[in-house]
Design goal:
43% helix; five-stranded antiparallel β-sheet; five-stranded mixed β-sheet; 25 strands
């Protein structure tokens, strides 16, 4: 892990861009962001501390022993041999601790330790027999802002030697090792001549693996030998990430809306006429400086807010139920202000002082002219900026706020620079008038809709069960019906002028509002295949997930197949899947269909994005149900195996189902990040096309499935 310690904001932004670019092209690998040091610390002759110290790489976190197990896997210490010591009290924790709802785990309240300092656990013990070591293993889970790695085990064996004042030794075999240290030696005789045995998970699902004397060999030579050079090559191998682009576009659209408000629009001709008093060249130069000043002011504002509260704090604000309830109230207040019931402004002394600085002229004067615009337009731009920053906070440490504010300020600044350079264009602008108040009222309706989004987050976080999918969608329909009624002149607000005749623009936007109502209504239709609502792609991230509803129930699987293969069940979006590789392999051989291995996890954010935005597509869903055998392997499933196994390839202990599938992924594909999708020929167990990590886009996923199916068909021929 590379760490950059910048001394200026400019360097931080530069490195953020650099690291983002590099991340797009780094090859997949086994990540190891946490390293443990385990030792003893002598207190007196018979009393020691067992010290477990985690050195955490930048951007990663480790979870407390005392966090809720409804979210991440808590750090836990299991003592397999402790007859020589007596544990004294509870273990203590030390480090840079944060507590609050975590969006990675459906906003469950978690306690975690960040990378700012080492995370240290101390367990005080009394040594009753120094000749007996204390041994066991530590289990932990680590996540960054976007993903979590499977739970890992760290084995330890500590001895107490009074002559050496508590010198200890620790056997640190972690569950994740670097890919370059993990090149399995493949020999056909080693994998084909061994007797097979059965290992049964706690769920009673049979797991067929090669086991001998407690050592499990999950290496499948056909998978390992073909995942880098699969049967077909149909993928560009480039991970696409459009999240940053959409963050910029979101900010830019917000800036365009702000331009049309009565706080900003009348300022365009006034400001530009001031610049055109001088020569043409000086006029457009000053206009460009004015526009650049607007960009600098808003970008610095966004980065300043992020720096003061911290990117993680902003991200927590976007998920904390108390903060979201407060945002709901604030947005209602802003909406009523946009409707004209009252006006919200900053103290007049601020704009007066800024205006006085603007009178000094020169570059400083132009800068403060732009600053004055930012202050006096706050009543119109404040709500837009606030929602943009909260939404963008989860897009990167500083990159999200930077891009959204850059987009917003660029849209706001462009007219001033362009009209200063081409003043004749001013004649093409519509005159100020009542239409600007209409824009403000429409923004008020949008504020009401966004307010419901914040209340929805609070509802899901605190498990109120009040604002579920159906009610949320119904309220949005009412909001846009109200917008349509306003635009067609059926309702009025305090600052509206009498409407003698509806303009073509009002009719067009009123019709658009009705189209949105019809679109939202489609979200209440039920897909008979999924037995769930047809979730709307444009409402993704705004509305609650369709499965969070009042009325619908989950489908049942075919009981005949279920009786034969216990792991067979309904997975995401009511899609049929197996949760055991070997059961899925057997069924795929029966049916002659290719396998799709889905390495996933309960705490995997990008796995949910794929399921909610790609697997819901009718064509994709049909392929997953009818044309392939889906096998979803959860690498963070903590169901215990009946006995602890040891991985032959990696030497680490396998205690639960999650360990089992994490080991399977690492041994055969040299990766430990999720999601990872692998198309496999069940007959030969060869990989059909390049394994696919998380990538956005339905078409790319469809191409991936088509390529694998075609390769499977050609292989059969």
């Amino acid at each position: 892990m590379i760490e950059f310690k910048s001394k200026t904001m400019r360097l931080r932004i530069y490195f953020a861009f650099l690291l983002t670019a590099i991340a797009f092209y780094l090859p997949a690998q086994v990540l190891k962001p946490v390293k443990w040091e385990i030792k003893t610390e002598k207190i007196n002759d018979n009393t020691y501390n067992l010290v477990f110290k985690a050195n955490i790489s930048k951007g990663w976190t480790v979870y407390s022993q005392y966090t809720s197990d409804e979210g991440p896997v808590p750090t836990a210490i299991t003592y397999e041999e402790k007859s020589g010591v007596k544990l004294l009290g509870k273990s203590t924790e030390k480090g840079y601790k944060k507590e609050g709802p975590d969006p990675l785990f459906d906003n469950v309240n978690v306690v975690k330790f960040l990378d700012k300092e080492a995370f240290i656990i101390k367990q005080k013990v009394e040594v009753v027999d120094a000749s007996k070591p204390v041994s066991g293993y530590l289990t932990f889970m680590t996540c960054d802002n976007n993903r979590c790695l499977p739970p890992e085990d760290v084995d330890f064996s500590l001895t107490f030697d009074k002559a050496t004042t508590g010198a200890a030794k620790a056997d640190e075999k972690t569950a994740v090792v670097a890919a370059e240290e993990n090149k399995p030696v493949i020999a056909a005789s080693d994998t084909t001549k061994k007797d097979t045995a059965m290992a049964t998970a706690a769920s009673a699902a049979p797991v067929k693996a090669r086991i001998e004397n407690g050592i499990i060999d999950q290496l499948i030579p056909a998978l390992y030998n073909t995942f880098k050079k699969p049967r077909a090559s149909c993928d560009d191998g480039v991970v696409q990430n459009t999240g940053y682009l959409w963050t910029f576009i979101f900010g830019f659209l917000g800036g365009l809306f702000a331009l049309l408000t009565p706080c900003v629009f009348p300022m365009i001709p006034i400001t530009v006429s001031f610049f055109t008093k001088d020569t043409k060249r000086k006029g457009w130069v000053n206009g460009l400086i004015y526009g650049a000043s607007i960009i600098v002011i808003y970008v610095l504002l966004g980065l300043l807010i992020t720096a003061v509260f911290g990117p993680e704090a902003l991200n927590r604000l976007s998920t904390n139920w108390i903060a979201n309830t407060l945002f709901f109230i604030i947005f209602i207040v802003f909406a009523l202000s946009f409707f004209g019931f009252y006006e919200i402004t900053l103290p007049s002394s601020w704009s007066t002082k800024s205006d006085q600085m603007a009178d000094k002229g020169g570059l400083l004067g132009i800068f403060f002219m732009a600053f004055t615009l930012a202050l006096v337009s706050f009543s119109c731009t404040g709500p837009i900026i606030g929602s943009a920053l909260v939404t963008a906070a989860s897009k990167g440490e500083y990159m999200g706020p930077f891009l959204v504010m850059f987009g917003f300020s660029l849209a706001l600044a462009l007219p001033f620079g362009l009209f200063a350079a081409f003043p004749a264009w001013l004649n093409t602008l519509p005159k100020s008038g009542s239409w600007m108040n209409s824009v403000k009222v429409v923004l008020g309706f949008l504020e009401l809709a966004l307010a419901l989004k914040f209340l929805s987050v609070a509802d899901m976080t605190n498990h109120w069960g009040v604002l579920k999918y159906e009610l949320f969608m119904a309220l949005w329909i009412l909001v846009f019906l109200g917008m349509a009624a306003y635009l067609f002149g059926f309702i009025k607000f305090p600052h509206d002028s009498p409407i003698k005749k509806l303009s073509l623009t009002r009719k067009a936007f009123g019709t658009l509002a009705l189209v949105i109502v019809a679109y939202l209504g489609y979200g209440f239709t039920i897909n008979p295949a999924t037995a769930n609502y047809n979730a709307l792609s444009l409402m993704s991230g705004l509305a609650p997930p369709a499965h969070y509803n009042f009325f619908l129930t989950t489908q049942q699987v075919d009981p005949v197949i279920k009786a034969k293969y216990p792991s067979y069940q309904k997975c995401a979006n009511n899609i049929n899947c197996f949760k055991d590789y070997y059961e899925g392999l057997s069924y795929a051989r029966e049916t002659g269909k290719p396998m799709l291995i889905d390495f996933t996890g309960h705490g995997c954010v990008n796995c949910r994005k794929t399921e909610e935005h790609i697997w819901v597509d009718p064509s994709i869903r049909k392929n997953l149900n009818d044309d392939v055998v889906l096998v979803s392997l959860y690498v963070d499933d903590d169901k215990k195996l009946p006995s602890t196994l040891v991985s032959k390839s990696r030497g680490n202990k396998i205690r639960n189902v999650g360990n089992l599938w994490a080991d399977f992924q690492i041994v055969n594909f040299e990766q430990n990040s999720q999601p990872l999708y692998v198309m496999v020929d069940p007959g030969s167990e060869q990989v059909l096309t390049q394994p696919r990590p998380f990538k956005e886009g339905i078409k790319g996923y469809q191409d991936f499935l088509d390529c694998g199916r075609n390769a499977h068909g050609s292989g059969k021929q």
